[in-house]
TrEMBL record:
Keyword Glycoprotein set for record: yes
Record key words, sorted: Coiled coil, Disulfide bond, Glycoprotein, Secreted
Stretches of the chain forming a coiled coil according to its record: 98-132
UniProt xrefs under NCBIfam families: GGGWT_bact
Annotated compartments: Secreted
GO cellular component: extracellular region
Major place of residence: secreted
Full protein name: Fibrinogen C-terminal domain-containing protein
Matches recorded under PROSITE patterns: FIBRINOGEN_C_1 (PS00514), FIBRINOGEN_C_2 (PS51406)
Domain Fibrinogen C-terminal, residue spans: 213-435
Length: 442
């Protein structure tokens, strides 16, 4: 069935170009002017399977409100009216592509918006991290400042401690000594000691000690202190009856019942015993560590009654032995502090009394060759079997060859290992009245 051309054109225009701005409500007249013969077409004529070439189009608005659309056909073997539906497919394709591009642009805008939002979030996080870094930097700076302040405070405190430490120590010693004096006065109210002097066995930083002005009922040795109720070891003041002058001594209140007045101690080599006559006469060292009480004091103590002597020995393996002498005393300086020691017993063989009894005391500066070779003060014979004031050798064993010595000079007790070249680790000499008897504990 054939349709009028005008009808076909109207349908085509309405379907294919819905977006045209022409006024289709009134009258739509479209004329197709062909340069050659114009032929109509039906729904099934002239439709090829491929895309039809549409040629060129032009339009013109007429005064009467109509629109004239002119199509110029391309040069073809058989000219026919174009298939408007087919031609508009291409336009629709590009319109569809355009819509897709618009949608893609919209999608890209949304993506860009999300990226911008994420960028703002990252910038915010970066700002927070910068602020945290600044805060931590400030905190670290504060800590560093406090650390330097503490370092300066510590250095200042250490300096003050070095300055005031000895003063505090001296004050503590003074308080301790005053406490002991108070205790002695309480237990011996009749013992009165005045006037101040310095003890030769205590260093210059220690408290000054009293010299006698009026003495009555004062302890004459550590045994009398023990009987007055002092049963703890330590440094105490006594007044020997023969010396009539106060004397600081170390009292051993533990060994074999206590009551011992210590006259010599070696324990770590901290004190040099290679001394001159006057030093051995007056005493030297530290009563709390290594010391020699002094030949004058040993004479005064040992001649105010009948005294016994105990010598404690320890080697570098921790083995302990002792020698006990029932009778011990020394003569005065005019007789070179000649030794009188007898009545041996103990857990070690005797190396002292049998060889050194009745020998005079000598020191390296007195011209005695044995004292010079042995580097100490002692009751030397030819030269010794016991030399408790000799050189302190760490480890014990030594040799004359390796030390370029003229003879042995260590802290020797010959019968300990039957050699002069083994030096003991610790030794001590202490005396107490022969009649001393410890009191049972209450």
């Amino acid at each position: 069935m054939r349709l009028p051309l005008a009808h076909v054109v109207v349908v085509v225009v309405v379907v294919a170009w819905p977006a045209l701005w022409l006024s289709w409500a009134t009258t739509a007249v479209v004329s197709l002017l062909l340069s050659d013969n114009l032929t109509g077409f039906s729904g099934d004529e002239g439709i090829s399977s491929g895309l039809m070439q549409c040629g060129e189009y032009s339009n013109e608005a007429l005064p009467n409100g109509q629109c004239r659309l002119t199509a110029t056909l391309p040069q073809m073997a058989e000219q026919r009216c174009p298939d408007m539906f087919r031609c508009t497919d291409e336009v629709s394709y590009w319109l569809h592509e355009n819509e897709e591009r618009k949608q893609q642009v919209q999608d890209l805008k949304e993506i860009i918006s999300e990226l911008l939002e994420e960028l703002r979030s990252h910038r915010h996080r970066i700002k927070l991290l910068e602020m945290q870094h600044q805060a931590r930097t400030g905190w670290n700076s504060t800590l560093e400042h406090r650390f330097h302040f503490l370092e300066e405070s510590y250095a200042e405190s250490a300096s003050l401690l070095r300055v005031h430490g000895p003063l505090i120590y001296n004050m503590q010693r003074q308080v301790s000594n005053l406490s002991m004096v108070v205790e002695r006065v309480r237990r011996n109210p009749g013992c009165m000691i005045n006037i101040v002097r310095t003890s030769p066995l205590l260093n210059a930083n220690e408290v000054l000690h009293p010299e006698v002005q009026h003495v009555r009922n004062c302890p004459i040795d550590c045994a009398s202190l023990y009987y007055s109720g002092v049963h703890r070891s330590g440094v105490f003041t006594i007044v020997p009856s023969r010396g009539a002058a106060p004397l600081e001594v170390y009292c051993n209140m533990e060994t074999e019942g206590g009551g011992w007045t210590v006259i010599q101690r070696r324990q770590d080599g901290a004190v040099n015993f290679n001394r001159k006559w006057n030093e051995y006469k007056n005493g030297f060292g530290d009563l709390h560590a290594e010391f020699w009480l002094g030949n004058d004091h040993i004479h005064d103590l040992s001649n105010q009654g009948a005294y016994s002597l105990r010598i404690d020995l320890e080697d570098w393996n921790g083995k302990h032995k002792h020698a006990y002498y029932d009778s011990f005393k020394t003569e005065d300086e005019d007789h070179q502090y000649r030794l009188h020691v007898t009545g041996f017993s103990g857990t070690v063989e005797d190396s002292f009394a049998w060889y050194h009894d009745k020998q005079s005391f000598s020191t390296p500066d007195t011209g005695n060759i044995c004292a010079e070779i042995s580097h100490g003060g002692w009751w030397y014979n030819q030269c010794f079997f016991a030399n408790l004031n000799g050189v302190y050798y760490n480890g014990g064993r030594y040799s004359a060859k390796s030390k370029n010595l003229l003879g042995p000079d260590g802290i020797v007790w010959y019968t300990w290992k039957d050699t002069d070249y083994y030096s003991l680790k610790k030794v001590s000499m202490m005396i107490r009245p022969r009649t001393f008897r410890p009191r049972p504990s209450p």
